[in-house]
Amino acid sequence: MANDPGDWFDRNTADPEEVAIMDSLVKRITVGQLDPADVVKRYVELVEADETELVNFIPKDILERLSKPQPPDRAPRAIGQEPALSRSYAQ
Question: I need a labelling partner for 50 at 20 to 30 A (CA). Which of 21, 41, 58, 74 fits?
């Protein structure tokens, strides 16, 4: 649905590095998008439907997963408590 980043980005005046970054972003963002006409049809289907399917991307067992202890190397750390920052290399 989006073929370009917009009027604010002028690839003719941008640095080559910026153009490469923008091309990479556009390629990643626009992958798998529907045709605009298909999107409109789908919205009409949803608006006119008496019922719609609930699609929940959160796993049903999310609370169980989060309540399990994590191994030390996977446990979340506070900012500034990363392993490289918490060790003393001055020994």
Answer: 58
